[in-house]
């Protein structure tokens, strides 16, 4: 009887086991189906690419970057063919071993290289690691392909600047695209490892200059070695850019400025075309094309001379006595004085509890406005500025474009500063005093201007009262020679000034060079009109020196601004530099 009672129990245990096995099998089947679904629906494309790219590789073909030329077609930025080393991450089995092997031949930052390869957005595309390879190194790598799996040698056009530092600030340089720039440039065909413009014309007009990539599809073996070419699409070269700059004028301006720290701007006062844009100290943009090390970059960036700073458009300085042009115009246009009205200069002038000096220790005596401009009398302009008032001075400053960017086709332009009582109250938490107005009247105190802004000021005097917009690009041409963009002269803005004021000022500025403070600009080649300025700085023995000018005096064809930062000479060296520049330009046949 006992064995009969045990049968149902055994049967029940057996059935439970069968059910458990069934549940486990169902679970395993569900897991398997889910995994298949995941591989098919989610990971399908990835594995398809893996299988495809295990046999095929797409090698990008870099386009030739467009040329940058001067107004006469002289090449300022060109290209040379160079070899680069790149790695296809998907072909590398042991990344550390490969990096160690490469680092024995070329200088590499191992951690940076590893991070770059691991973070590559497409593991099947070559990632550039080293540019400008020596031919002997290229031969060595190609002869030992099996020792360097995943390594490919790519032929790239490298940017070259044949005149080295000439025009470096306006041309700019190239550098490898950053993650931030890559995000902003995703629609322009730019990938990690590509070189793009980082400054100047190279940066502003990069979309035109960079061209369009091509590609070569090749079949490879199990080691990633090429077997045959499947298809090829040629790259499209970038567009060529013709600048308004005249290479010869640029060279002359740089040579005459010499090793002095400062800037020179030369242009057409009627159109705003910039013919020379000089900033010194300068730099060699070829260094960036060949791959600048972190150490060299830090050294250049932290150089106390600021060679990367474009002083012509970003440097902000007190305009000193060149600002007397604005004060004189404000006084005449608001009828505060007539051209024959006089003030007495004893060599100093008291405003409140402060005594303001004239540069002429014993004074100029009783003089009128023309004499005050010619001799740059400070005491005359202290009194004139107080009579006109800060608000009117600020108003006429804005009419001449001070306190705002000029709109030149470069980035990060300085805006300068035209102070006012409201500005001082907001930014200095202080009231405006008569002493501030006296200082402002001779271009000192809080006011700041750039050389490019002062080019507009002197151009407006030369051209009869029009505010021009400076520009650097004349036209853009495609590879077939078709003009895709022509920069006609930007519209000029008429400044409402009386003809009598302009003629008086033009005559006075001619007198500055003929018999006044700008006499060092005189030469036998061409007549020059201009205005000197000496801006006091914290280093009292080394002030900034200005000279604004145009030539010829009767029919102006060129306007120029020379700024010497912290001059070492005891003379008005900026006027002398301007005179030499104009003399050399106009003595050439056809000038």
TrEMBL record:
Keyword Cell membrane listed: yes
One GO term (biological process): cell wall organization
Alphabetical list of Pfam families matching this protein: PBP_dimer, Transpeptidase
Domain Penicillin-binding protein transpeptidase, first and last residues per copy: 262-582
Compartments (UniProt record): Cell membrane; Membrane
Transmembrane segments: 20-41
Listed GO CC annotations: plasma membrane
Occurrences of domain Penicillin-binding protein dimerisation (ranges): 61-230
Entry keyword set: Carboxypeptidase, Cell inner membrane, Cell membrane, Cell shape, Cell wall biogenesis/degradation, Hydrolase, Membrane, Peptidoglycan synthesis, Protease, Transmembrane, Transmembrane helix
Membrane topology: Single-pass membrane protein
NCBIfam families: pbp2_mrdA
Name this polypeptide is given: Penicillin-binding protein 2
Lineage of origin: Bacteria, Candidatus Aerophobota
